[in-house]
Amino acid sequence: MADVAPPSLLRLEGITRRFGAVTALDRVDVSFRRGEVHALVGENGAGKSTLVKIMTGAYRRDDGEMFLDGAAVNFQTPAEAQAAGICAVHQEVHLLGMRTVAENLFLGREPLRWGLVDWRTMMHDARVLLDDLGLDIDPAATLSHISVARQQMVAIARGVSLGASLLVLDEPTSSLAEREVVILFDLIARLRARGTSIVYISHRLDEIYTVCDRVTVLRDGKLVATRSLDGLERIDLICLMLGKSREALRLGATAFGGRHAAAANVEPLLRARSIAFAPRLRDVSLDVQKGEIVGVAGLLGSGRSETAQVLFGTAKSTAGSMFMNGAPYAPGSPRDAMRAGIGFVSEDRKADGIIPELSVRENLTLAALPLFTKFGIVSRVRQMAIVDRYMSRLGIRASSADQNIRELSGGNQQKVLLARWLCTDPELLILDEPTRGIDIGARGEIQRLVNELAESGLGVLMISSELEELVEGCSRVVVLRDGRTVAELQGDGVSEHAIVHAMAETAL
Amino acid sequence: MNLRRVALSREYAALAVLVVLVLLNSLFTPHFATVSNLWNILLQLAPVLIVALGMTFVIATGGVDLSVGSVMAIGAAIAAVLMERGVVIAVGAALVGAALIGVLNGSMIASLRVQPIVVTLATLIGGRGLAQIISNNGELMTVSNAAFLEIGRGSFAAVPVPVLLALVATALAMFALRAMTIGRYVLAAGGNARAARLSGVPVRRTLVTVYAASAFLAAVAGLIMAARLGASDAAKIGQNMELDAIAAVVVGGTALSGGRATVAGTVVGALLMQVIATSLNMLLVPYAWSLAIKAVIILVAVFLQRPARA
Amino acid sequence: MKFLRHNGAFVALVVVCIVGVARYESFLTVENLSNILRQNSMLGVVALGMTFVILGGGIDLSVGALVAVAGVAAAMLAPHNALLGVLGGILVASLLGVINGLLITKARIQPFITTLAMLIAARAAALAVTHEQSVNISGDGLGWLGRGIAPVVLLLILYAGGWTVLRHTRFGRYVYAVGNDEDVARLMGLRTDRIVIGTYALSGGLAGVAGVMLAARLGAGLPVAATGWELDAIASVVVGGTLLTGGEGGVWRTLVGVLLLGVIFNLFNLDGTISPWWQWVLRGSFLLVVVVVQSHIRPATLPS
To answer: What is the CATH code for B34-304?
Structure first.
C-alpha cells in the first residue's frame, strides 16, 4: 500500500515525546502529501500542539524519525525548520503588533542599500508579495491596527515568502468573523493550487469538511487514524475523536452511581438564559437544580469553558440573564460568584488552580480563609481541623499537610482544588474537565465524590469531553455547538449516541 | 526529595556564610569579637532590618519598593516639625503620613497597573523633595525632646531600643506571614495572581496593604535614625536604604520573582551584609570598595535564585 | 488622543515657552536659551542612550555612575594625550555597558537589579580610584568640548546619528522588535541577546561621551558627578512619549522631553521663588502622571 500512495512531503514515523512521567506523544506516524490540506484534530491533551512543535523545531522528540522529501531531518530550532520550509502560524499571531505590515514581512532580511534599510524597496516588495497572494492589505499599516484575520494573512504571507513548502495553521479561525473565514479559505485554496502543503488544526467540523482533503485524529497522544474526508461521515469523525466506535456508543463503567432525577417544578438553583460573551459564546441557556449533576457537552471551542467563565464572573455576559435561587445574578468578579455560593474548579490546574510555592494546607484553605479568621489571624486549630477532614474524606495522598503542592500527583492536586471549594460550603460547584490528565484510580475517586456531594444536595455543573462521564454521571446534559445550546437531553434521553448526534448536528 | 534538599541548602547558604564570616572575623579581625562591637553591629543593623522586613513582603508579591529611603526622611521630617506638639502626636503623624505614601504607591501599582519600579522611583524622587519641604525647606532640624531621643539612644533591660524595635518588628512580620490571612494572600498573589483571584483573594487590597506596611516600617526606621542623630537631616536620612534593604532580602533567600518569603532569611541576610560592612570597615578597607563588594554580593545572590528558563 | 500621545510633550514645550516669554523678560535672550541648551546637553546625551535601552524593553539605572567613571577616566588619561582621554573615558563606560548587557542576557538577572548593582559598583570604583577627590585636568586640551557651542553641536550630531541608527539600520529596527515582544522577535529569527547587549553598550558609551563633556566643562573628573541623572534621563525619555514598556518611541521625542524638563526648571530659576525642593516633588509627580497617562492610552495591542 505504501508504494501506491502519492509521495509525501513530510513523513513522521514513530514520533514519541515524554514530559516527565507523561507521554504526550506515543509512536505517532503521519505523512503529509505535497499540495494537500491535512486536518489535524483531537481534544485538548491529544498531542496536536506537541506534534506541531516537534515538526517546527520548537521541541525535540524522544524517539522516531522525520523525513522531508525522503531525507531524514532533525530540527533543533524553529529557525532551522523555517529554513527547511516548514512554518507555523499560531492562533495568537506571533508577529510584532507595533510594527508595520511590511516590517513584519521582512523582519530579519530587510533589503539594504549602502548598509541602511531600504524602505522604498521593502514597501514595494511587500506590496508585490501581498498582491501575489490576492491580499488587500496596506503594507504601511501598523499591524495591530488591522483585523486579526489580516494579521494571520500577514503571518501566512511571511511564511510563504520565507519559502515555506509546508504551512501549519494552528486554529486559524478561532477568533475570526465568518466573513474573514471566507478570505482565509480563499488564501488556502490559492496556496494549495501552488503546491504548498497545509496542516490545518481546528475543532470546527464544518471548516474541516470545507477546506481539508484528509484528516488525522489524535487521542491521548496516540494516532487514532488518518482518513480521507471524502466519504467519512461526520458522526464517524466525532466517534474517532472521542475514541468510540460507532457501534459501541454505550454505557461504560465509570464510578458514578446512577442518575439523580431532578425535582420537577422547583425554582432552579441556577438559571441562565441566553448568556453570551463574544466571540465564542453566543446563546447558552441552562438550569441546575439542587442535588443535580448537569453536564455540559460540546467539542473544543464550542463555548463550554466560556460558559463557566461567565457563570463564575471572570467574563461578563453581554446578553441574557442569570438567576441564583431566583434572585438576579450578575457577578462582576469571582468574589461575587463566591458570595452567591458558587465554587469553580478550572480546566487548567497549573495556570488557574494551584499556588505553586504554597503547601497543601494553604492551597486547600485559600478560598475559605475568611471563615476561620478573626482580626486577620488564622485559627490554626480550625484550619488544621478542616484540612484533616478534607484530606481524609477525599483521600488526598501527601506526606503531610505541609508538603508543597507541586510535589503531588495531578489527581491529588485536583482533589486539593476540589477541597478548596468544598470547605467554602458552596451551593453550586462548577467543574471544568474535573478528571482530565488524572490516573484511573483518582478519576474514580473524584467521580464517586462528586456523586456523593450531589446526593447531599449540592448542585453540580460538570463540563466534560468524556462521554461516559456525562452519560453516567448526569441527570441532564446540555450540548453546545458554536457557542449555542443545541440540545438538552434528559433522563433516558441522555446517551452517547444522542450527545454525539447533537454535536454533529445530524438527526438520530 | 532532591528538590527539597536543594531548597533547604539555599535557605541555609546565607546562614552558613554568616557563621563562617563571624568565626573568621573573631579569629583574624582585632576587636571584632567584643561585646561592644557586637552591640554596635546590632545597633547599625536595626533600621536596615526594619525596612528589609517590609521589603520582604513587597518582593514576595513580585514587586519592589525603591521609595523606602525617601519615606524614612519624610517620617523623620514630620516628626521633627511636629515635635513641639508632643512626642505622641509627632510620632503618630510621622507614621500615618508615611503609610499614606505607601497607600499611594500600592494604589497606583494595583489599580492603575503601573510597574512597581517606576511608581516607587517617582516617589523616591518626589519624596526626597517633600522631606526637604517639610523640614522648612531643607533645614537641618535638631530635636531635643528627651522621650523621642530614647527611640534611638535609649535601652531597655540592657537592650538598645532600636534593637528592641527591630526584634518586635521581626516577630510581627513572622506572625503576619505564618498566622495571618495577609501572609497567605501575599504569597498567593505573588505566586499565581490568576489562581489567587479565582479563589477570591483580594489581590488589590493585599498589594495596597503591603506597600503601606513597607512605608510604615520605613518611617519607624527613619524615626530611629533621627533620634540617634538628634536631628532630622532630610538630605541624608535613608539615602541608598533601598539598596541595603533589597540586598538583605535577596541575600536572605526571598526570590525577586515573588511567591516566596522568608523573614528569618531576611534577618540572616541583613546580619550578613552588616557583618561584611563592619569587618571591611575594621580592616580599613575604603568605604567605596565595600560598596562595590556589596553590589557584587547582590548580583551573586540574585543569580543563584533566578528562575530556570522555561 | 493619538496626536496628544505622539506630540503631547511638544505641545507642552511650546506652551511652557510661551509662558516663559510672557512672564520673564530674561527668558527669550540668546544667553538664557543657549544656557538651557548647554546645561542640558550632557543629560540629553545620556537620555539618548537611555532611549535605546527603554525602546528595547529594558532600563539602565547605572548611567549616572558611568558618567562619573568616564569623567574620572578621561581626567586621568588626558595629561598623557587629550584624545586618549576622550576615547578612554568613552571606552570604559561602553565596556561597563556591555557587562550590564551580558549579565542581563546571559546570566538572566533582571535589568533593574543588574544596573542598580552597576550603579553602586561603578560609583564606588570612581570614588576608590580617586580617593574621593576630584581629578583636575591639567592643561586645556579638552576644555573646548564643554564650552561655547561645542556641546550643543555635539548633542545635535549625536541625536541625528541616533535617529539614523534607529530608523534606518537593521540594529535599530530590531531594537523596536525586541521591545515590542522579545519572545516573538526570537521566534522570528532575531538574535535578541546581541541586540539587548547592543542597547546597553550604546547607553554606556553615550554616558561615557556625556562624562567626558562634563569633565571638560568642569576642568576636572568628579567621582560624585551626575548623581541621580538616571532618574532625569528616564523621566526625559518617558515624558517625551517613548513607551516605558518598550517598542514605541524615538529619539526626537526624547530631545523634546529633555528640553521640556530643562525649560521648566529654567523658569523655576528665573522665578526664584520656587524652592529647589518643590522641583524634586514636581519631577516625581510629573513622572508618575506621564506614566499613568501612558499606560491608559496605550495603542491597541494584539490579543494574547
So the answer is: 1.10.3470
